[in-house]
Amino acid sequence: MSRLIYWVSVTFCASFLILPLVVVWPLAFNPSSFLTYPMEGFTFDWFAKVLSDPGWTRPMLNSVRVALGVTVLAVVIGGLAALGVMMTRRGTQIVLSALFVSPLVVPSVVVAVALAYAFGRTGVGGGYLSLVLAHSIVAAPLVFLSVMTSLRGLDPNLDLAGASLGASRIYRFFTVTLPLTAPGFAAGAVFAFITSFDEVVLALFLADPGSSTLPIALFAGLRDRLEPPIVVVAVLLSVLSVLFLMLLNYLQKRHAAPRS
Amino acid sequence: MSHAKSQPHGSRFAAFLLLLIPTAIFLLIFVVPLGSIISLSLENTALGSRFVTFNAAAENNPDQRAQAVLQDLGAMDQKQLGEVARMLNQEKSGFRSLILDTGKKAKTIPPSMGGLVAFDKRWAEPDYWEIISKNAGAISWRHYQKVSGLKLDAAGNLTIAKGDLIFMRVMGRTLVISVEVTLLTLLISYPVAFAVARGSRRTAATILTIVMVSFWTSVLVRTTAWVVLLQTNGLINNLLVWLGIVREPIQLIFNRFGALVAMTHVLLPFAILPMINVMRTIPKAQSDASRSLGAGPIETFLRVYFPQTLRGVAVGGGTVFILALGFYITPALTGGPNDQMLAYFIADFVNKTLNWGMAAALSVLLLLIVILLICLGKLIQRMLAKRERAI
């Protein structure tokens, strides 16, 4: 009896989580323009259509450009913040950590209003720069947390060993601390890229027509008319997410390997 | 040694250098902008900057005030006059015509109280003067009055303006939807987390992969899937018709049902992951011990296992609730007009009417609720930790 309850509830709940995605994706390969089953065949036409339509490819390129900029900036901000915070006392650590994590809990609409107003007033204006700055602020906390985790896992004796052998602070930092936390930085970079690439709300407030990103185009398409190209874009975004998830798993495994 | 342990990788000076750039950036493009929306929500330049002479005039000298009002109104161009008239009319109807008429003739009216009253009798009523001096200041609580539906009348009492409770109703709806979504999320998350923490190795790995794929797929993409599934001629409706459960497609999207289903799905991983973390710390030996002492599997679960997982349920539920409060994209795409939450109206004020003041006031409200909830959560966590230590 209890086994039955267990299996029924687990199957139902896990299906709710994954079935909506699994069931919808094949429709991107359906020749019919109606998004429903049964499928009438198998085609890559919709993919070809999306990849040759500047209405989709331009936002795609914009998204990549913004996300690359965000990755660099967020890794610098988040990484420096984590390295610095680790060197301070406990009390300071708590205050600064709260500051560097806070963008994660503030609703993105509120951040969007604040930044749109601030950028408008200071003349940063809509477009590439404002998107990179805004996304970096919400991506930096993820880099910060990721680097903090790997710094916390670091054995302090390694640094002491370096010191006892006569290495200076700066030399130890570049030859001991940084290489050992590199996987944390790499994972943070992955987080930053995908966060920016998937972000909609800030982009809706800050982008101008020239810097419209893929999620904006997808959002606009969904509001306008539901067509197969929308599902194609959703499939492309999912594939990217899964690839990044695999990359992250690989990074974590490599991180864990030397210690075991 | 203790010194080396607390600061293993450098000195305080190095920490200062490292923290300089990130702290400056966080202050400049996060903390300061957030602070500026507070001032934006109180800002009153549209009215305040138009009554400079009036604000400087002595309050107990009617002639000086009359002269000042005439000078200020005379200095405004047609557009500014219209704007001021519209804003003051919101406080007292009839103000529009008074301002427009007086403004047009401002140069010809004798600059004294007598002259003004002779031009329009309404200037003799203290109400109008009261309203100008209350609204011509550098800051104004106008936006918050609109948000709360409360109004200060001439006597200084708080009154509820009829039909003006729109935003309180939106606030209530936001809270109700967030509670509903949180409960649904917890209900579905629990078995999933349980299977990952307690299931066989293969079940756990499979389900964890499912959770992670879902977590990493963007909110917009998962919402897209639901739009495709729930539309009138979509997969679910076709399935229901094919199975003969319904005769005609039923409305599954652009209503509360659609919004709840999609939001729950999007937020599930945020409840599942903290639950898994807590469930993994509960030793399996406890359940075995309970079984060996004669308790059945259901009794063991309810009395030994479940109470210990409540901490994970609380953390997951709190996270989901806070995230749900600020949701915009998913309800905008799957809900109906009566399922839109606070965030939707904030975006609406910015995008459609360019009313930054109202958008800022609603943002401050949303932010305050979120901060309040986080503090509450921290407090509860601390109390629980204290109790655990006491035991």
UniProtKB/TrEMBL annotation, chain A:
One GO BP: transmembrane transport
Domain called ABC transmembrane type-1: residue spans: 60-248
Transmembrane spans: 7-29, 66-87, 94-119, 125-149, 170-194, 229-251
Entries under CDD domains matching the protein: TM_PBP2 (cd06261)
Membrane topology, as annotated: Multi-pass membrane protein
Signal peptide location: none
Gene3D superfamilies, sorted: MetI-like (1.10.3720.10)
Keywords in alphabetical order: Cell inner membrane, Cell membrane, Membrane, Transmembrane, Transmembrane helix, Transport
UniProt-listed InterPro entries: MetI-like, MetI-like_sf
Pfam family, one: BPD_transp_1
Domain of life, source organism: Bacteria
Subcellular location per the Swiss-Prot or TrEMBL entry: Cell inner membrane; Cell membrane
An annotated GO cellular component: plasma membrane
PANTHER family: INNER MEMBRANE ABC TRANSPORTER PERMEASE PROTEIN YDCV
Recorded family membership: Belongs to the binding-protein-dependent transport system permease family.
Name the record gives this protein: Putative spermidine/putrescine transport system permease protein
Species name: Mycoplana dimorpha
TrEMBL record, chain B:
CDD domains reported in the protein's UniProt record: TM_PBP2
Location in or out of the cell: Cell membrane
Membrane topology note: Multi-pass membrane protein
Signal peptide (from-to): none
Keyword RNA-binding assigned: no
Alphabetized PROSITE patterns for the sequence: ABC_TM1
Transmembrane segments: 13-40, 175-197, 203-221, 257-276, 313-334, 354-380
Principal cellular location given in the protein's record: membrane
GO BP term (any one): transmembrane transport
Residues in ABC transmembrane type-1 domain copies: 171-377
Swiss-Prot/TrEMBL keywords: Cell membrane, Membrane, Transmembrane, Transmembrane helix, Transport
GO CC terms: plasma membrane
Keyword Acyltransferase belongs to the record: no
One Pfam family in the UniProt entry: BPD_transp_1
Record-stated family: Belongs to the binding-protein-dependent transport system permease family. CysTW subfamily.
Protein name: Putative spermidine/putrescine transport system permease protein
Organism: Mycoplana dimorpha
